[in-house]
Design goal:
Number of domains: 1
Largest sheet: 5 strands, antiparallel
CATH topology: Methylamine Dehydrogenase, Chain H
Strand content: over 45%
CATH class: Mainly Beta
Number of strands: 31
CATH superfamily: YVTN repeat-like/Quinoprotein amine dehydrogenase
Shape: globular
């Protein structure tokens, strides 16, 4: 029997909190919802309070533990943010705090965990580094086993005066870790040493993105041979052919995430945390945020903050071309993050600016999104994670 057959799932929601340095935050911590796959409705179950700026979340492969960045310039009286570990109560999905480790870097914004559940990797946006934490048998985090510092700048005077690694992802075989650096217009590739928890620069060590594009997040195609990078500043989506044996990215094309005639109103991205808080705000009309590939591999989705939409592209893995299907309003403002249900039938969009999560039905033939009519209220959501429920516990929705 499929783990999806009961139609139930738990959704963990990361957010900016009402305490700490991010003045936009309203949340108390990590919200937990029950998802009804049949209707797309979300029902609030609980809130884990007191978690400072848990702006991005990941769940281990056994679904026993959850990890959250604490996206702050300092925590516990020490400079730099942190990563917090939680145990997941298997009957209810409630979270029990285990421990946290300092990232050394300010403003950690993204993290991932390997398939064996042995290492958590995280990026620190403001300080420009990537850190690796070993995971203890009880799910808590040990002190960092490695820290890699990026150096340099790119062409945008406000957004790219220094490194800003925004995400880290392991490839399917977990031989390589790919890091999108918004500040350097590069996607770095590291060989991942599973024995020591070390990141080793690949050869070549990075691939360049168009100057000023600002690569933010990436997603692998299910075939493991294609990668899609969403560029925040340039509001664009770049596709690559990927060699899983050598860890090499070969550029294919770059397409826009917004219509050519979009003008929009002024919108300020989240640069208020950390050293950038002292600078004048950067104002633009749209900033692309998140990217995911449908489980079928036929469609690629990206979120737009400003245009407030989810763009859909069809992808042909034979011709390696992207074709725009259309733009669906996100049902709110500032869709920072979204998640696709592993059945490929639902998409949940976290609208940070309107304190809501909106659910959409995904048309499996066309890839188009249709609102289910269900909207869940939750303060300043920045990340959604879907985990399947079973009678004997959970299974990870990837």
């Amino acid at each position: 029997m499929s783990s999806h057959d009961d139609g139930r799932a738990v959704v963990f929601v990361g957010a900016y909190t009402g305490f700490g340095p991010n003045r936009r935050g309203k949340a108390e911590g990590i919200d937990i919802f029950r998802l009804d796959r049949a209707s797309g409705a979300l029902t609030h179950v609980a809130t884990t309070p007191g978690v400072e700026n848990p702006s991005y979340l990941t769940v281990d492969p056994t679904c026993r533990f959850l990890y959250a960045v604490n996206g702050s310039p300092s925590i516990d009286g020490h400079p730099g943010g942190a990563v917090s570990a939680f145990a997941i109560e298997q009957r209810t999905g409630r979270l029990e705090f285990l421990n946290r480790q300092m990232t050394t870097g300010q403003g950690p914004c993204h993290l991932t965990i390997d398939h064996a559940g042995r290492f958590v990797l995280a990026t620190s946006y403001h300080t420009g580094n990537v850190v690796v934490f070993p995971v203890r048998p009880d799910g808590s985090l040990a002190e960092a086993s490695d820290l890699v510092q990026h150096h340099g700048s790119s062409v945008h005077p406000d957004r790219q005066d220094r490194p800003h690694p925004h995400s880290v992802n392991l490839d399917h075989a977990e031989r390589f870790a790919l890091v999108c650096d918004l500040g350097l217009d590069r996607v770095f590739v590291y060989r991942f040493d599973h024995e020591r928890g070390k990141l080793i620069p690949n050869d070549p060590p990075w691939v360049a993105i168009e100057p000023g594009a600002g690569p933010r997040h990436l997603a692998f195609h299910p075939n493991g041979r294609h990668v899609f990078v969403i560029n925040e500043i340039g509001s664009s989506l770049s596709s690559f052919r990927y060699d899983p044996d050598r860890g090499v990215l070969s550029p294919l094309e770059t397409v826009p995430t917004i219509p050519a005639d979009f003008v929009g109103t002024a919108f300020t991205p989240d640069i208020q945390v950390g050293p950038a808080a002292s600078r004048p705000p950067v104002v633009g009309t749209n900033f692309a945020a998140d990217v995911h590939v449908a489980p079928s591999g036929r469609f690629v989705y990206g979120s737009n903050r400003g245009h407030d939409s989810i763009v859909t592209y069809a992808f042909d893995d034979v011709t390696e071309r992207l074709t725009c299907i259309g733009y669906e309003p996100s049902g709110g403002h500032v869709p920072r993050n979204f998640a696709i249900d592993p059945t490929g039938t639902l998409l949940l969009a976290a609208n940070q600016g309107s304190d809501s999560i909106v659910s959409f039905r995904v048309d499996p033939s066309s890839g188009r999104l249709v609102p289910t009519g269900h909207v869940a209220a939750t303060p300043t959501p920045t990340c959604v994670r879907i985990v399947d429920m079973r009678s004997d516990g959970f299974t990870l929705a990837t």
